[in-house]
Amino acid sequence: MLTALLVLTGLMGAVTAYAQGPVPGTSFATAPELKPGTYTFHLQPGDLHFFRVTLKQGQTLFVTLRMAADVDFDIAVLSPERDLLESGVRPTGFYERISLKAPVTGSYYIVVYPFGTSSGSYTLELSVVDEPRVTATVTVTEFRYLTVAVPAVTVTREVVTVRTVAQQVVEDRGPLLNLFGMLSIAAGLVVASVVVSSSLVRSRAPPQQGEGGEVRPRGEEGGA
Fold this sequence. Notes:
Blueprint: H1 2-20, E1 37-43, E2 49-55, E3 60-67, E4 73-78, E5 84-88, E6 96-101, E7 106-114, E8 120-129, H2 165-203
Antiparallel strand pairs: 1-8, 2-7, 3-6, 3-8, 4-5, 4-7
């Protein structure tokens, strides 16, 4: 009966410890590993709480430390080589917030410590964000040659032709004008010959006789 009670008491203690979550470490060697989530712990004056977070290169760790308004706790994040990378030392009444992008893959340490004689409970919120992947978009222009049958199109256009009409008329009527010219010359010659002939006939006519058989010059006919 006593043995059963001891076993039951041990099991209840183990369950209680598991329900409370990880126990803060007091050094780098005893630092428990934390996963992304929310944890609550109690810190006494002069104590240091050590935690460990495993990060891959390029991942970003976000840490928020919340406490009562009259409590002043500070926080620090150290590299796998235990070099100080980031710290939060805001005054009393303010939360501490830290973000850190892991330069290498490894275990990073979180240390929570009080300022002065501050003590009390605090909440530790952790989140890890993977490095965003960049997708490069490449646009390729392809040239393709297509043979397209286009139906024949009949287009009616107005065409203006300029030609020399006067020259054509002269060339077409040239022989006729030459004929008229020859006929005019011939007619002129005929008229001229008739006039000459009339003049000769008049000059050769005999003198007119007056009363009593006298011959009078042509110039004296009007005086008789």
